[in-house]
Fold this sequence. Notes:
The complex is a heterodimer.
Chain A: H1 4-12, H2 38-49, H3 57-65, H4 78-83, H5 94-101, H6 110-127, H7 141-152, H8 155-160, H9 165-170, H10 176-186, H11 193-206, H12 208-216, H13 229-252, H14 254-297, E1 316-321, H15 326-334, E2 339-344, E3 352-356, E4 359-362, E5 372-376, H16 384-390, H17 396-411, H18 420-425, E6 431-432, H19 439-453, E7 461-468, H20 491-501, H21 504-512, E8 522-529, E9 534-537, H22 544-560, H23 573-580, E10 597-601, E11 615-619, H24 629-654, E12 667-670, E13 675-678, E14 681-685, H25 690-693, E15 707-710, H26 714-722, H27 728-732, E16 737-741, E17 747-749
Parallel strand pairs in A: 1-2, 1-7, 3-5, 7-8, 10-11, 10-15, 15-16
Antiparallel strand pairs in A: 3-4, 5-6, 8-9, 12-13, 13-14, 16-17
Helix pairs in contact in A: 1-11, 2-11, 2-14, 3-14, 5-14, 6-7, 7-13, 10-13, 11-13, 11-14, 12-13, 13-14, 15-22, 24-26
Chain B: H1 13-36, H2 43-62, H3 66-84, H4 91-122, H5 127-137, H6 142-155, H7 163-167, H8 173-181, H9 186-193, H10 195-200, H11 202-223, H12 229-249, H13 253-272, H14 288-310, H15 315-330, H16 337-361, H17 369-391, H18 396-406, H19 412-422, H20 433-441
Amino acid sequence: MSEFIQLARQQCARVAPMWPLAESIAVNPCWFFTDQPVERVSAIWKYVSDIDLVMERAFYRQQLQQGQLDDMLLPTDAIKQLSEPQRLPRWFNVTDIVDQLQARQRKMLWKDEVVLQISQFCGLHTEFPERFVDEAQPDNGLYLGWLTVVREDKGIATLMGERQLPHYFDRLPDDISELYQVLSDDWLQHYSEDALNYYLFSLLIDVLGWSSALRYRDWDPAAPHNNIEPVLSLLGIRLAWDYVLWQWAKDTSSDLFNRLSQRFAQQAARCQRDCERVEQSQKILWQCQRAYEREQLQGYRLASKTAPDVEQRPTVQAAFCIDVRSEPLRRALDTQSGIKSLGVAGFFGLPIGFKSQQGKRPQLPGLLNPQIWVEEKDVALPGATITAIGELLDTPTSSLNAVEVLGLAKGIGLFTAHDEVESTDTPKAQLDVDVAAVKSELVDALAGTLTSLGIKQFGECFVWVGHSSHHENNPQRAAMNCGACGGQSGAINARLMCQLLNQADIRTALAERGIKIPKDTQFYAGLHETVTDRILPLSDEFPEYVARAFEQASATVREHKQYPQTRSGLNRLADLFKKTRDWAEVRPEWGLADNFMMVLAPRARSATVDLQGRAFLHDYDAQHDPDASILAALISAPGVVAHWINWQYFTSVTAPARLGSGNKLLHNRVAQNVGVFEGNSGDLRIGLSLQSVWDGEQWRHRPCRLQVIIDASETQIKQALEASPSFKPLVQNRWLFLYQLDDEGQLTEVTL
Amino acid sequence: MGATTLNWIQIDELRVTLVVMVALLSWVVLRYTWRNFALEPSRPRAMGWMLGCLVSVVVTLVANHFILFLLSWISISVCLHRLLLFYPERARAVLATHKRMITARLTEVLLVVSFIQFYLWSGDATITGTLAHYYSTNTVPTGAMLTLVIAALLSCAQMPFHGWLMQVVESPTSVSSLLHAGIVNLGGFLLLSFAPLLTEAESARWLLGILSAVSCGLAILIMSTRISIKIRLAWSTCAQMGLMLLEIALGYYSLALLHLVAHSLYKAYAFLSSGTVRPIHNVLVRNSWITLAWFIFSLVLINLALWLSFGHFKPTAAVLLSLSITLLMSQAHKFSWFKSVLIAVVWVAIYTGLTLSAAQLMQDGRVHIMLDLAVAAWFIVLVALYWWLEQHVAHQVSQRWFIRLNAGLYIDEWFTRLALWLWPRPEDRHRYESVQEKESAS
Lengths: 752, 442
């Protein structure tokens, strides 16, 4: 059965990548499953690893009793179905079965120890690549490295209390393809392809965190299914562990082995039926989920279309990121006269990355690669010497003495304020970029953004507002920054937009493309700091009336928005500001929690409606998009990003222990900051921490799939869907829902 | 003297220094915890046990009577137990707590045994009384000192009793900070309390010196092979505690006090700020021959300086100081030559200034030149080994040692087995039970 390795490859390609901490962006962990119906995928994940992709029965029972579900969408006996005790079949790997069959009260459990061993090894491989790189066989590196370590390891046999164990590692083949060959010839040849698929995926999910991290290695957004060799090696390692245990059981105890092989064969024979049973039993849950989402959607009614009156030239325009946190601030601005806000993906279409002495970082969505590198002009990085001296504390030979010399000085940090993030995020100087060399790319990008915004007239003052979360000491801070900017602050993009659009030659080039910017229009850059909802200036100071308008809007937001508790219990600016410098703060803000819908429509349709900070808003005017090409671009870029964010929050609530990253108080940064462990046990963690979605009493994020509302004709919507192959299956397979907004403000679901 | 006068507490420079330090740390750590646990229902529990722990530490610091000392010592242990088991559903937290329990109970027994011996020897159940008896008789109870030294080694989590210190990262960050910055130091304080006696207890000094030097050297090498921030910090604590005990064994009591305070502040900061994403890496030594030359040059210079100012050599201190200077100079390409020399000079000046200030607070003991030389030689061997490992990453021997060190030399596995043997995983916590039941029902 030579195609066994092909089956393994296919399963590896199903794992979604995970970005390292400093560039962390939201990802739907099921992204490569979206070609299948969500209900089916949920059954698979539940069956192979007990991971929930939908809430539990108790949750819906409670919502039903509280009237939070739309009865129309539920069967009459819903409450009865939700109360029935549930007994679901599950797939078990060899490690799990041996743990169940053996008496291991006085020994470590196989599953725990195997996951720990693999996890620690992957960390070692990531932290010290120079020790494991084999130039001759780069693809084999991870597996070979693991073999070297596990063969050397004298501890496992002691820990597990099984003296003969090391012997079996010596017998494993040295090459990864050979390993797959041996496994298929020697062990797994009798099982059906279905069973093998469940088995392989179940093994991968045991180490989902590291699989995801390795999936990111060599990640190329343009060819996501290439470069799966590191994951294939990891799967090989996990398989090898099961194989070792299988052979060890065979040689050690015939009773154990008989029961093990019998149970394994039984589950392999009935896996397809078992998984269908899980799907059947989850049917009611998905019905409830739909009713839950529908009930909430009915609470929002967008404005009906008004006759297009002759539009006054606005005095101030402010373009914000589509991020849900912009919505309350924009609403507060739009109620002021002469101000018009706009919504666009927060990287403002600039294909850039940022270079500084601390290294390179992307400033655009994870699905794209930077084309142009921008630098900061004349920034003397303070403390390079201090950093170099501080490193003596990390190095073994010097750290013993360094503690005596530097310890007291370091300790001063215990008593001082922590404000590094804000102080490094708000310089106003011009950015360093060779405009002449990349002028045509830049002008293309600017023209694209301005066109997709559908701006008819430019006001006197136009502000590009990026956003960023200013708080300290949080390994997952990137999750609260701008997702469209690759988990960074949007400041660089806002500054560059302002810098470019104020240049005469750029304006001339844009005018040649039919975008006329009046001479008296002045561009500014600002930063929406999301912990306090301030708007900080990033260019010359704002004109006084603009600054006043921003301050007033911020104050309005602070009056009405729900923030995580402050030290004083109040939401005054001063109270919230303290959070930005508080290194003990684990809930600086609620981030994008409770995100629920995406509206692609002219701002007039949503400006008067309180969307409670739950909506991604992107300006879109169907009248200027006859062939639906702008719409297609919107759903396949910002649409997919919003879906990833939505599913990261969704799965962090449905399966906090597996698809969320657990308790922030236990987070422990790992190997080159690739991610975090919870404590030091288990797998690398993916997703959001419990503190990001839970307030100690209830979920701050109501688990709902994204509801996308589009103001366009049905034909245009269908046309756009045909043109976006990544987005269409999301609608088809119910990973999100799509509605057409009609002139009266009614919603009609678009189904395929 | 006399058993009838109950001198329950005592205050001196050592104790005032430590109480002030603990008070500052308490303020920071409690404030941090309060905020960390905002919105968590477990907030009062965390604050309560932490406060209990800190109050007990202060009582231990000022306790003079053996009974008060023991009671507060045990009280720290009980409060800490609750904090380490803050998430009892975490299997590895439970395991780590069990491992600590073995060490903690053993320490308490040794402490009791040692105190009883002191009492039988001096007829007084206070620390001051014991010291007074020593000053009047000029004899030392060797057995009691040996027991005391072992108790200190255990409570400072020295190898092979170190495992729990690494694994308690299964409890919240602020608990780690409290433990690593405060509680684990108590072994050092215990010995400093009996410092004058220790000076004369030759065998106890050898025992303490050798065990702590081995533990310190190995732990610092192991640290450099670990992959997560908190575990690196924990191994570093193990090594730093080793150095503190070593300095005590060598008679440098004031240096040990300086080390205790400086390390506490540094480690509290390092743990509490461990969430900030910054690169962690060992600084690599570049050109090994020049580095070696630098090492020898600074070693000679520093030894000379120490000899001129103190009238005798301090080999271990000189080696460790030279290592820092060498590393600084090998990084000279990052600064300028002038700047690196300046930094090196300032470095030595700070070190000298701090040691001289510490000497105002605590009287040093008799220098033990043989032990000192032996330890200095041990560190030189280790550094040579480390430099070699680092320069030859591809070599088979290097790789083998790297793997061994990374695994903590396979010592802790035996301790895990012991803990599991004493406290088997309870049946009802067997995590597959519910699943099995589901299965059999289907």
